[in-house]
Amino acid sequence: MSLLAIKYKRGHLEILNQLLLPHESVYEEITGAEDGWQAIRTMKVRGAPAIALVGALSLAVELLPVSFSSKEELKNFVAEKLQYLTTARPTAVNIMEAAKHLTLFVKDSSSKINDTETVKVELITEIEGMLEKDLSDNKALGRLGAEHMLQLVGADKLKVLTHCNTGSLATSGFGTALGVIRHLSEQDHIDHVFCTETRPYNQGSRLTAYELVYENIPSTLVADSMVSLLMKTKGVHAVVVGADRVVANGDTANKIGTYQIAIAAKHHGIPFYVAVPSTSIDLSLEHGSDIVIEERPAEELTNVAGVRIAAPGIACWNPAFDVTPAELITGGIATECGVFKPSELKKALAGKN
Ligand code: MRU
Fold it and tell me: Which positions are catalytic residues (predicted)?
């Protein structure tokens, strides 16, 4: 079994088909943007950072064998593919950020470099750098988030609750919220981790539980509806979740169910953290209400493992994400640049976009 969502070497990309976890570890080759788009849309790969990485790397493998007749042709090709990749899923900002960055990068390189092939290879190298950067950002934010949490809570061994999957499988490796937990565990500061099922898609029971068991971290799975009782009775010290998009005022879009966990945490006086690389922060939007929330097919709610469990004829609403208002993020927003209060975010990361 593997915790590596993305396997890449120049010219060759494979992704772990997460639809088959935790029963089977099957890698599938991605040969270009079309495959990348499909893998993202169908959730074979998911999690905001992994979506951006697979999108960009799918372009890199498609670009490598192609000879472009001019820099103009290369630029148009790249812009068109990146634009297409951003349409696979609407909420996570990372792939939009990556598309913006890479479109500017190729434009800038074209103005400095004469040879079209060299511009292409520079772009591929830039995309490859994103993989390493994501890993080092995860490790940095994991450490910073863990240190902040330990200090705020004032205990040596923590009971931590997390939601959805934010680990190696959602990133280049290590993880964001699960990166904080991984760091705490490596430093022997974990008493216990609770992970939610994360209905309706079960990223918690299928993926986070799998990662926690794989890493031998003491952990317990709970249904989403058990969170308030868990907080009341089990001594949870802190909550940490990831995000698909954090906007300028600190409002945070993350997996559906995050908002109600934040409300319960506030009620019980439990610090609530968001852990993200700065690629998940979108300072171009002011309020959470500006974020487009993806709605997914009803079958994800009505069926479990292909078997219909809901009464025939019932209508369904299946938003994949919700927005947690900044005032409920009481612990902080942990990034590779530091841990910030929502109100500090704009100033701390000004110039990022
Ligand atoms: O629908 P998904 O599985 O892509 O949703 C994933 C999440 O909501 C994660 O919490 C978020 O992307 C952060 S992953 C580091």
Answer: 244
